[in-house]
Amino acid sequence: MSIINYVNKEIQFKIVYYGPALCGKTTNLTYIHSQVAEAHKGELVSLATAADRTLFFDFLPLNAVVVKGFKTKFQLYTVPGQVIYNATRQLVLRSVDGIVFVADSQWDKMEENIESFKNLEENLVRQSTSLDQIPYVLQYNKRDLSNPAPVHYLDFILNNRNVRVPSFVGIATTGQGVFATLNAISRLLLQKFARENEIASAKQQASQPAYAPASTALSGIAAAAARR
Ligand SMILES: Nc1nc2c(ncn2[C@@H]2O[C@H](COP(=O)(O)OP(=O)(O)O)[C@@H](O)[C@H]2O)c(=O)[nH]1
Ligand SMILES: [Mg+2]
Q1: What is the pLDDT of residues 183-206, one digit of tens each?
Q2: This prediction's pTM
């Protein structure tokens, strides 16, 4: 649930990057962090353990657009993909507003992709919610590796709920598709927020990209601010 902070005049959205181990969740966040101007980002925190993987969450607040005088802030988290860390995944999912499900496009990862997606659904049920209530998008990552599964197949196995959601191809290591994915989920969140709060200006904001890569990132944010 988005948090409205009346003191700081901030609306805070929590976005969780979910998916199997090594699909590229951390790489997405690292890329986003590297492209956003200093003034618009917090520290990227990565908690690792002896297993030398990211085992807890990455935390990345980004200040984006302004809605009715309230700054919208996005917090991006990743979950550990390995099966044994389900308790941590549940913890990270608490009060989630939006989800990016990152799939690994390699053929031999299909089972892991499906497992992870099911695990996401189960963990949401445990929190008395579901993908019917939480906006989400899909990213089919690692398209640069040889012989990736076709997009229509990935859509067939992962994008088959009642309503089809936006899906993007990605190469997180080079940043391809990373901002398209982030923009899509942030737009969905702003649209939902606007619907639920009947805020016309939020609807307008939702039609603009919240972020754009590299040099245009700042101008996108600046343009949003200038519309106040
Ligand atoms: N070739 C290729 N490697 C990737 C891509 N995305 C991530 N990786 C690599 O895959 C490994 C796991 O990525 P990471 O982001 O740590 O996965 P996570 O477990 O989902 O957080 C790292 O070595 C990344 O550099 C991609 O699109 N293409
Ligand atoms: Mg990781």
Answers
A1: 999 999 988 988 887 765 555 556
A2: 0.86
Q: In this model, does residue 9 exceed pLDDT 90?
A: no
What is d(CA 156, CA 115) in angstroms, rounded to the nearest whole number? 15
Q: What domain range is 141 assigned to?
A: 3-226
> What is the maximum alpha-carbon separation in the chain?
52
Question: Do residues 84 and 49 make contact, with C-beta atoms less than 8 angstroms apart?
Answer: no
- Tokens in use for 205? 């904001």
Ligand 1 neighbours (beta carbon < 6 A): 19, 21-27, 54, 78, 81, 141-142, 144-145, 171-173
Mean pLDDT across the chain: 83
Q: How many domains does the chain have?
A: 1
What residue's CA is closest to ligand 1, atom 18? Answer: 22
Q: What is the DSSP letter of 176?
A: B
Residue 149: CATH number of its domain: 3.40.50.300
Contacts of 112 (CB under 8 A, 6+ apart): 20, 21, 23, 104
